[in-house]
Design brief:
single chain; alpha/beta; TIM Barrel; 3 domains; five-stranded parallel sheet; two-stranded antiparallel sheet; 7 strands
Length: about 325
């Protein structure tokens, strides 16, 4: 699959909001923003989703990861930054809702306002096509290793969302306003400086340590709880019944954070412990936890098995062996990618 991970898309409302903020700004950042506003406004590919899909077909691009080079990261006014954030995200989320087979999303965050950034995640991050966020090289004139931004990084870690580092306004911009030097020279320096700051300041290590510490604390709590439960079973009279109930509870907890495979496996084992049919229990578990695609596959497999059983037990065995071979090949491919 050919995936374009650096694809921008804008709405006319977002462009107009940028004009209101930067249209009369004669600073280097304002002048550079006006240059990009002109580009956004005059290149129809930047605002036309249907045209974008045609371009993708033309060049054999099967999927684009949409993002916005966010000039709102330079804005000091909270209300203006919030409006730009909303307009930017609404524009890139909607095409992904309409065509999840062709688009994914890197959300825009107003990092200079950490609480607003977390609110933005609360609003948009539950979208199934959101795969991360895009952060600019600075936020509100502050470097990305500013301590005020740590809660946002911790929230990204908690949600399992990576971030793409994107340039927007490089240091020394006043020397790069001609000859497209900001793009050709400045952008590489801006992202290199930002990434180096994050590493040398220990931001990644700090966030990881916090995440590991939180996971360790939760694990410790679970160990204490399960130790108490095991002691209770050992001290009771009906140890076999208590162990089965404890095993049921543990399997439910393991399956809770998983998908159809985990649920099917847990239900199959539980059925075996209770002397019931594990195959039927596994099918029910996969059905309950499965997506529509998984449920369709379950129906197709059950119907095929019944038909083959009626026609010929030998064909049924061949069918089941084929499923096992397909599953083994799929797992082998997944292990090598």
């Amino acid at each position: 699959m050919r995936i374009d991970v650096h694809a921008h898309l804008f709405s006319k409302a977002y462009i107009e909001a940028l004009r209101r903020v930067f249209g009369n700004d004669n600073s280097p950042a304002g002048q550079d923003a006006q240059r990009l506003i002109k580009w956004m406004s005059t290149d129809p590919r930047m605002t036309d989703v249907a045209g974008r899909l045609q371009e993708m077909e033309k060049w054999g691009i099967e999927m684009q990861v949409l993002s916005v080079p966010f000039h709102g990261a330079l804005v000091q006014d909270r209300a203006a930054a919030g409006e730009l954030t909303r307009l930017a995200n609404e524009m890139i989320v909607q095409p992904a809702r309409d065509r999840p087979d062709r688009f994914r999303v890197l959300l825009t965050l107003p990092l200079q306002f950490p609480e607003l950034a977390v609110e933005t995640l609360d609003r948009f991050a539950q979208e199934p096509t959101v795969v991360g966020v895009a952060l600019m090289g600075t936020a509100g004139g502050r470097p990305l290793n500013d301590a005020a931004f740590m809660p946002v990084y911790a929230e990204l870690e908690r949600r399992g969302l990576p971030f793409l580092l994107h340039p927007i306004s490089p240091p020394g911009l006043d020397c790069m306003l001609e000859l497209n030097l900001a793009n050709v020279v400045g952008f590489m320096f801006e992202t290199t400086l930002a990434a180096t700051r994050l590493v040398l300041a220990g931001v990644f290590a700090s966030v990881l340590n916090a995440a590991v510490g939180s996971a360790a604390a939760k694990l410790e709590q679970k160990v204490v709880v399960w130790t108490d439960k095991l002691n209770a079973v050992a001290g009771g009279g009906d140890s076999s019944g208590g162990l089965v109930a404890l095993a049921d509870e543990g399997l439910d907890e393991l399956a809770e954070g998983g998908g159809a495979k985990e649920k099917a496996g847990a239900e199959g084992i539980k059925a075996s412990l209770h002397g019931k049919n594990p195959v039927w229990a596994a099918i029910k578990g996969a059905w309950q936890a499965g997506t529509p695609v998984v449920r369709a596959a379950v129906i197709a497999a059950v119907v095929s098995a019944i038909l083959l059983l009626l026609l010929s037990p030998v064909l049924l065995i061949v069918f089941l062996l084929s499923l096992l071979i397909i599953a083994a090949v799929h797992r082998a491919r997944a292990a090598t990618t």
